[in-house]
């Protein structure tokens, strides 16, 4: 979404390429959720009584593991198909990037040594749901990289990290029990709260830095009030099930920021 705003601002918007890029992003997002559900479920990480968060399909016995795995692969296949079309009309190196995205999505919780269990989840989220998603979407429309596309990717990546951090903050207790050493587990409850707040604040700071070159980027300030409730909850010590609502609030902030920021970037010139 933000990448399309960058492309529009440069006068190089392509509707069909934007739609395909959005399809790639959405398919990967849904696919990684299915993949995580499957992998965590078969490991027993999400068994009933262990997980604090929302319902999981495999862990709670609501769907056969094979069906959830096939759903994940189906989403990855759809993302690859759309991505190959974009690679064919821009650059074939995108196919390599797409393959990296799929591998990162699967091995986050899949395989014998999932990196999500070692505290590298936020790094992956920033790279793939921030830099790759925003800069990649702008690239396939503009057929070139730009400083704005890369800089505008930072807020998107940080807000995605905020979403993951509050999720992992909620699950510190259960993750410790099953040996899942997320970043939140590694740095502890108190530091995780500070990092989460940084993930909320820094996107606005980066967007403000962009404003001298793209004044309408200041429209993202319309999303600022949505940051107050989750920030208060995390600062106030909300934990466990109380953070489920905070997760939803963080998601709404991410959506509102992305929409306002996209419009602001598109209005340039």
Please indicate the percent range of residues in DSSP E strands (runs of 2 or more). Answer: under 5%
Number of helices: 10
C-alpha-based Rg, rounded? 19 Å
Helix content: over 70%
Largest sheet: none
Distance between the termini: 19 Å
Secondary-structure element pattern, one letter each: HHHHHHHHHH
Q: Structural class given helices, strands, pairing? A: mainly alpha
Residue stretches low in confidence (pLDDT < 50, at least 5 long) are none
Mean pLDDT: 89
For the secondary structure, the number of strands is 0
User: What global shape is seen?
Assistant: globular
Give the total of domains.
1
Summarize the structure.
With 269 residues, the protein is mainly alpha-helical.
For this entry, give a set of tags:
269 residues; single chain; mainly alpha
Question: Could you explain how this protein is built, in words?
Answer:
The protein is an all-alpha fold and 269 residues long. The protein has one domain. 72% of the residues lie in helices and 0% in strands. It has ten helices and no strands. The chain is globular. It starts with a helix and ends with a helix. The mean pLDDT is 89.
